[in-house]
Design brief:
The complex is a heterodimer of chains A (about 220) and B (about 725).
Chain A: E1 3-7, H1 14-24, E2 29-33, E3 44-47, H2 67-77, E4 81-85, H3 87-94, E5 101-103, E6 111-119, E7 135-142, E8 146-148, E9 159-163, E10 175-179, E11 185-188, H4 206-215
Parallel strand pairs in A: 1-2, 1-3, 3-4, 4-11
Antiparallel strand pairs in A: 5-8, 6-7, 6-9, 9-10, 10-11
Chain B: H1 4-9, H2 14-24, H3 30-39, H4 42-45, H5 50-53, E1 63-65, E2 72-75, E3 80-88, H6 90-95, H7 97-113, E4 118-128, H8 134-154, E5 158-165, E6 174-184, E7 198-203, H9 213-216, H10 237-253, E8 257-262, H11 267-279, E9 282-286, H12 299-304, E10 310-315, H13 320-329, E11 333-341, E12 345-350, E13 353-359, H14 360-363, H15 380-383, H16 395-403, H17 412-415, E14 426-428, E15 434-437, E16 444-450, H18 453-458, H19 460-477, E17 480-490, H20 497-517, E18 521-527, E19 540-549, E20 566-570, H21 580-586, H22 597-612, E21 618-621, H23 626-638, E22 641-646, H24 652-657, E23 664-668, H25 673-679, E24 685-692, E25 695-700, E26 703-709, H26 710-718
Parallel strand pairs in B: 4-5, 9-12, 17-18, 22-25
Antiparallel strand pairs in B: 1-2, 2-3, 3-6, 4-6, 7-10, 7-11, 8-10, 9-11, 12-13, 14-15, 15-16, 16-19, 17-19, 20-23, 20-24, 21-23, 22-24, 25-26
Classes of the chains: A alpha/beta (about 220), B alpha+beta (about 725).
Amino acid sequence: MNFGIVVFPGTNCDRDCYYVIKDILNQPVKFIWHKENDLRGVDCVVLPGGFSYGDYLRSGAIARFSPIMTSVREFADKGGLVIGICNGFQILTEAGLLPGALGRNIGLRFICKYVNLIIERNDTPFTSEFKKGEIVRMPIAHNEGNYYIDDLSKIEKQIVLRYYGENPNGALDNIAGIVNERGNVFGLMPHPERCSEKILGSEDGLRIFKSIVRAL
Amino acid sequence: MRTREELKRISMTVEEYELAKSILGREPNDLELGMIAVMWSEHCGYKHSRKTLKLFPTTGPHVLQGPGENAGVIKLDDELALAMKMESHNHPSAIEPYQGAATGVGGIVRDILAMGARPIALLDSLRFGLLSNSRVRYLFSGVVSGIAGYGNCIGVPTVGGELAFEEPYTENPLVNVMCIGLLKGRPKSGRAVGIGNSLVLVGSSTGRDGIHGATFASLELTSDSIERRPAVQAGDPFMEKLLIEAVLEALEKSDAIVGIQDMGAAGITSSSAEMAGRGGVGVEIEVTKVPQREKGMTPEEIMLSESQERMLLCVEKGREDEIRPIFEKWGLNFAVIGQVIEENVIRIKENGVLVGELPIDLLTEKVPAYDLVMKEPKKLKELQVIKEIPKIQDYGEMILKLLGSPNCSASNWVYEQYDHMVETNTVSIGTGASILRVKGKPYLLGITTDGEGRYCYLDPYIGGMLAVAESARNLVCIGAKPLAITDCLNFGNPEDPEIAWYFVETVKGMSDCARRLNIPVISGNVSFYNESENYTVYPTPVVGMVGKIESVESICTPKFKEEGDIIYILGNPGNLGGSLFIEKFLGEARGKPSFDLELEIKMEDLLLKAINDKLIKSAQDVSRGGLAIALAECSIWGNLGVDVDITTDKSPEEVLFGEAQPVVIISIDPDKEKKVEEFFKEIPIKKIGKVIRDNFVIKINSNEVVNLEIESLKREWRDGIGKWMK
């Protein structure tokens, strides 16, 4: 399983994802600079969190024009696995690879804390290591995680993760993570790479990466 | 000749001007005078503090870099070293809280970067007035957003610090930011070396922002200060993130960079003069080579601009192109603006024409260092007396009141706005000292900041000692051995003899304590003139300290662990001098804080051994709010109750709310009682009770004085700050 982590200017969770994949899961992984366009040999593309282009204009709005995104789209069209975490999720919605949009948190403040999530689907390549309906704990850290879509009914089946109990950012229908129709592109606001080791307080996030490894 | 008014605008006295003139041997031109003024400002020149700061112990076998560079550095093991530094951004934050705090973060991060270290954590020590005041809420909320806005974007976690709300900080908040970083091998140096080598400016372009920021920071705040808003720079964290990555990549891939320096206060002037001073050389700068944001900037504006996100590199001649592509890849300027010259001068040219030239030492060593005129404040002796100890009816209610006050309550309203997890090293925050793991190493790092202005106001020598002792104790309580100190000294106008006395006494206290505890001060910063028309801040030293925890197994936390565990107190609680309780009751800080240094040394030594030997299950320092608040926190964090009975000849008020130090609460396994009592026999140790399921019960001499439900403690504690900020 070869992972490729895309680095945009301002990405800041790239090294954290790298560490989990390489040092915890012992899987081959490399960084891909946003100006490159070659995804040959990559089985899973990771769009990590951070502030690509400083989140100026709008989160993810500039990053989607980076050369690599054309390749990511082709890669996804061919069925390749793509996971966008936090800013990566925002980039995927801006690029139209996932439906909906992520607006300012309802409290208008950045929120960094652990939240409870419910696993709505475990039949995706990203969540097969969970049970359906299972409650897990993962941290969030964002300014813009307020998921919105005009017609919720259209994506009902694509919801993979929901906030459970408290909704921290006002997201519609408690949506915390969705896949595309085909199920090979996944975007989520929580940071699985931040909870993949016992010493950091939870290992729930590791199961997402393990699911991906199992998928291939 | 310059008029007094003209000089006042740039914070220079006529005497200083005459002195500069005589050193120079002629009248300086406008450009030169501007450069002298910023370098002779208190902020850059440490005119009133240089002599006193020599009191600090600064050496140790593990110290790789003491004061004098961009940051201090200690050795962690044969491979890794740690850089640390703290700095104030009080004045800018008082008039433009968001940008003031944000650029404070930016500056301290570049100081760490300049040592060749990757920044791994930020801490903030903040002081504000009371939250009942709407302008204070505006300042507080702006500062927190500024730290969050900048720190979150650059991907450096903000993992700790502390907060206090007291009236003297109403108009002049304190914003002290600390950063630590990790580096491999030898630290870099901010030195210009090698005649002919290039001076390269990297990062942002230079604009007209922040001109004379350093002189502004060297004045008291007045109602006109708001007019100085243009002297506050605006930060661009995205640019800083790129700068961090580019600099680290360049240092990793090439050894062509022989010197590296942050460009902060006084911009190109101070960075180039300091680099030349350290290297014993001179520099020549061509101002037209500086990438500019605006058209028509004068040499003076270019030399004094404090535009953010810039650094100055000294690069081996002919090797510039080895690293230029790295900066270009990250979309940053890489401009050769001058070179190292033999003559010890800073020479400024515009299109090849000489526009200014000053001896380096005029801007560095020859900055005047004043002897302070000191006088103990008359009112102090009176302030140190508490005429009558207040008697209260309901101790439980008092505990709830204190727990729900912003000074003792949970600070999650603040730290949840900070990304405290990025870099995935954060093991524990929010309960005393913070803990970070170091990837690939068995050991962990403990970090803390501490310093009670109230104690220093009432007794600066003891207050200074306490700032150091409390930091060290906080580290020891999590199982960390203290390694080094960085500090920020926040005071009023040092030309006032009473303030000067406070300053010197505080530094003496800090130095004596640091020396006895064997912890060197390796970097720091002084901020004077923290006063406004209505208030002078409490004399407030803030100590930032880093320690090392042997392994994950040696981590100790303050929360109670298990029902049935036995609770002990180490030390002698009591003495309401300087306590929050007295301030709350009498409306002002009063009494004399007490501290036993000999006991502190013994206690820390034993406690660390006990933790490493797994003799105890929790350790909690007793400080702000006293024993009652410390016990309540152990309960809240552990979600367990207590049943304690304290035998004493003191009043319940003194025992519960006194802040005498050192006092530590420990809990242990019931079958280790004998062992623990034997182990701590050299110091005062008292068994007070045990951990129970859900009630918080305190008896004094067998009389029950408190009986509360844990839930009610939590309710008050949880939202003590948030309730003001809705």
